[in-house]
């Protein structure tokens, strides 16, 4: 779920304007179930903005790794952050990687075992991360504030901001959304005509993220701000 549709547009990078669908590259050309493919930037943006995390796949001397990490979008880039000492952060600056995001929207129950499916929205992004510097095209501090805005709009103004040491110990990375593919499945099961008489329930079991009731810290005496009061809406 996206807490802040505008967070992606709030930092310094010019507002992303979804334009015509991008042309797929050799590796983003969807072949299997190509009818579910999209290279429309607006679809990609929506999938990223609805995500709390992405998975980043990269290689090092020990093989291939796929690491979950928080993400957010500013314009035409996906952003992540981590400690300067993070193996992942260091490796991502050296080489190409692949980032994925998946939202599961439902279990699709068909009348035959092999026609079962899932409803989903997924994205695969290829490229190389670059370091976001202070006073860069997008300032590192602005990028981290956009992350906070993505999580809880308005919270940045309430909290103790990061100090110089904290910012210095943190690396912010971004990857361009220039080479990406999305796949989206929705709707009912697609049964073969000869299976329509099978006496099994068929349909979709929807799945969604559920927001729980906020749990204040025992020592917190502050009235719940807007984003806490409206967390479950
Ligand atoms: C929730 C979920 C469950 C799935 N379960 C299964 C399963 O059980 N078995 C199975 O075979 N497949 C499953 N899929 C589909 C799977 O993600 C692949 O699309 C499919 O396996 C084809 O892979 P491929 O590499 O052969 O596709 P190809 O069409 O050859 O892939 C070509 C390119 O298309 C892009 N692409 C491929 N898949 C995706 C994707 N899902 N999202 C965005 N871009 C993509 C990539 O850039 C890839 O390099 C599932 C997908 C989701 C989101």
TrEMBL record:
Annotated region described as Disordered, given as residue ranges: 1-35
Superkingdom in the source lineage: Bacteria
Ranges annotated as biased composition (Low complexity): 1-26
PANTHER family listed in its UniProt record: 5-NITROIMIDAZOLE ANTIBIOTICS RESISTANCE PROTEIN, NIMA-FAMILY-RELATED PROTEIN-RELATED, FLAVIN-NUCLEOTIDE-BINDING PROTEIN
Protein name: Pyridoxamine 5'-phosphate oxidase family protein
Source organism of this protein record: Pseudoduganella albidiflava
């Amino acid at each position: 779920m996206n807490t802040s549709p505008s967070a992606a547009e709030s930092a310094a990078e010019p507002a992303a304007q979804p334009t015509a669908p991008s042309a797929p590259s050799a590796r983003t050309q969807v072949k299997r179930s190509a009818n579910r493919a999209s290279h429309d930037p607006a679809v990609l943006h929506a999938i990223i903005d609805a995500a709390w995390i992405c998975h980043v796949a990269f290689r090092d001397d020990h093989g291939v790794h796929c690491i979950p990490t928080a993400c957010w979008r500013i314009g035409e880039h996906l952003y992540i952050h981590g400690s300067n000492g993070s193996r992942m952060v260091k490796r991502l600056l050296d080489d190409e990687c692949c980032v994925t995001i998946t939202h599961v929207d439902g279990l699709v129950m068909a009348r035959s075992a092999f026609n079962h499916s899932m409803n989903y929205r997924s994205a695969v992004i290829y490229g190389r991360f670059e370091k976001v510097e202070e006073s860069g095209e997008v300032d590192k501090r602005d990028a981290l504030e956009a992350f906070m805005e993505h999580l809880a709009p308005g919270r940045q103004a309430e909290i103790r901001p990061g100090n110089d040491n904290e910012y210095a110990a943190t690396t912010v990375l971004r990857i361009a959304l220039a080479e990406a593919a999305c796949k989206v499945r929705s709707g009912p099961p697609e049964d073969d005509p000869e299976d329509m008489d099978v006496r099994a329930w068929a349909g979709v079991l929807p799945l969604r993220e559920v927001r729980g009731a906020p749990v204040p810290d025992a020592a917190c005496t502050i009235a719940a701000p807007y984003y806490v009061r409206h967390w479950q809406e």
